[in-house]
Amino acid sequence: MSCRLTLRAALLASLLTVLPVLHAESAARSQTATAHPDIATLERYVGLYRSADDPEVTLSVFRDGDHLVIESARLPQHELTAESATGFAVKETPLHLVFITDTAGKVTGLKRKAGSSEVLLERIADQPIRYQFRPYSRQEVMIPMRDGVKLHAIILRPTDTREPLPFLMERTPYGVDGYDSDSVNARYTELAGSGYIFVMEDIRGRYKSEGQFVMMRPIVPHHDPKSADPNQIDETTDTYDTVAWLLKNILNNNRRVGVLGISYDGFLAAEAGIDPNPAVKAISPQAPMTDVWIGDDFFHNGAFRQTYGYDYVIGMESSKEATFTKLNEDAYTYFLDAGSFAAAGKKSGTSNLPTWKGFLDHPSYDGFWRSRAVQPHLTQVDVPTLEVGGWWDQEDMWGPQEEYAVLKPHDAQHEVFIVLGPWNHGQWAATTRHLGAVDFGAATGDQYRQQIEAPFFAHYLKDQSGFDLEDTASFQTGTNRWMRYSQWPPKTSSERNLYFGANGVLTFHEPESDKETYTAYTSDPANPIPYRKRPIEATYAPTGSGWRPWLVEDQRAYSQRKDVATWTTPVLDHGLTITGDVVADLHASTSGTDSDWVVKLIDVYPDDPSLGKMSGYQLMIVDEMFRGRYRRGYEHPEAIPANQAEEYKYSLHGADHVFLKGHRIMVQVQSSWFPLYDRNPQTFVPNIMTASPIDYKAAEQRIYSDSHIELPVAEQ
């Protein structure tokens, strides 16, 4: 859902740190120069530098008069400011470069530093490469809506052509002032090179736009798309009105509009396809927040994502502009000491924020949350749609898969597509082959943008050939290759049950033992299991936050805990491919009257020094949480009968993964994932967010031997 940044600084930081643009925050500006190298010294640094970990990332350094500038394939020219004889700040960013020399004084590389993060680039040529970027003019406008409210927008148009061009629009709550020719070339390199009239708009109530901001504004009935009734205003009508104004007021356009965006902007892109303006010809909702109670952002199957909701709402509702802050202590300690979410809100002094009140007043799936859900409105395909998602998206992994699944039955013209790749939230906007410790062997985001995204919009907005996606593009992890399918999930997979056998053994053979056989552990709310390595920073800490890659964090730290139940297969003597939806079917009991259930499917790498940091690694492939009180339905929570086996069957979501020969498959089950998810008291209370300290009690959890994972095993 996030895109918090000073735009120019974040774009540059994303490109040089090989991190996605959506998750950088502004930091300290470059320091005042303390030294200025002479021309001869500057000339020594001129050359081409390549990232040691991501060879697709190269950086050109060249001299412009008495100073150095840098440039890359996705980075228009930026000036360097000298801080020492070998150290430079990248102007208008939090980045610093330090040139490295060998014992003979020859320049061999440079280090890119941002806070505690450091990336090494090796020098591969003495001559830099000069890149060409399309020039764009910039226009700032206020666009009137049907109820008189005006929305602020930036319009960027190529200045090197007079041909009629389509619009490519992104609507956002994160601010558009930083967009100019350089930033659009950096963020949308492939699309900017092709040539569009880019429109970047602040949504209602944010930054320079008028009106009131409503988090994930509900869609209201509006059968007349031109009605001026203020009660019929939502993001779909604001999009409709923006498009109508653009067609009338921006000359020399081809009367076609594409809309795209990631996260909150993806939600807005999806709404552009609901009761759309006829000029909208293509949309790409990417990691769209779709239903923030069932599977995105704020809740997963009723389990409240406490730290994310806490941090995000402060950042979005404290002012008209993003105001994301940081904690001065480990979030684990902060929320454990606070107790409940309500107590944490009082502790912060910001408990009256609208969405926080929504959390407290509407803990279950009622009309408040249903009205904000997008999927009930996806009843027909009016616009060609490209959904995009990441296997390890820590915020909105569920949304694109759900929107595709809901839209696909209505897709008579075969105009609904989905791309699923090895990314965290928005990482397809970056140039990198890594996510955390995992190396996928290629810059998969570049491949997606060049081979799918750019051709998609060119096809539907410019009538150009080259878009050849039939339905689904999926990056198969394990083998690290792109696959294409005629539907998702493909028909070539069949369901096989992987049972939680005796003595911690996973097996495809249904246990013959008594169904009363179980594995037990004690879940203690006073000692919840951390969801990632501590200390846990605020979600959007400026640098070094473990939030972005946490879903690929090594799970070995948790395997030895007594409150985690673990089952593992023997070493595989052949590869096993799973392609499709993975489902957990738990038969479990608790000595309490409420419980959370976390199920993680893990790929265990061999203990092999040749694998480097992946030796023995335990990589989560799919995982999900379910709050037990909602086993009969999300609208009506019920206490769990103590010490009575109940079934908890729920999706762990899609995967396209090969467990390679020599690896093992592991399943872990636990009952806390703190502080991302609030602690279940394990005593049934009407509202967990207002639970009292005396409500939190340890409970014995039992997982019975007929529990299993339903795996979509692909044909070999």
Could you please describe the fold and organization of this structure?
With 716 residues, the protein is an alpha+beta fold. The protein folds into 4 domains: 7-125, Beta Barrel (Lipocalin); 133-286, Alpha/Beta hydrolase fold, catalytic domain (Rossmann fold, 3-Layer(aba) Sandwich), CATH 3.40.50; 299-370, alpha-amino acid ester hydrolase ( Helical cap domain) (Orthogonal Bundle), CATH 1.10.3020; 493-714, Jelly Rolls. Helix content is 18%, strand content 31%. The chain contains 14 helices and 33 strands. The strands form 6 sheets. A 10-stranded mixed beta sheet has the order 9-10-12-11-13-14-17-18-21-22, sandwiched between helices. The protein has an 8-stranded antiparallel beta barrel with strand order 1-2-3-4-5-6-7-8. Strand 13 (253-262), helix 6 and strand 14 form a beta-alpha-beta unit. The two termini are 37 Å apart.
Tell me the name of the CATH class of the largest domain.
Mainly Beta
Give the terminus-to-terminus CA distance. Answer: 37 Å
Query: Which stretches of 5+ consecutive residues score pLDDT under 50?
Result: 3-11, 17-33
What is the number of helices?
A: 14
Question: Looking across the biggest beta sheet, what order are the strands in?
Answer: 9-10-12-11-13-14-17-18-21-22
The count of DSSP E runs of length 2 or more, i.e. the number of strands, is: 33
Q: Per the principal axes of the C-alpha atoms, what is the gross shape?
A: globular
Structural class: alpha+beta
CATH-defined superfamily of the largest domain: Galactose-binding domain-like
Mean pLDDT: 92
Query: Would you identify the CATH architecture of the largest domain?
Result: Sandwich
Number of domains: 4
Percentage of residues in strands: 25-35%
**Overall helicity:** 10-25%
Outline the biggest β-sheet: 10 strands, mixed
Query: Rg, please?
Result: 26 Å
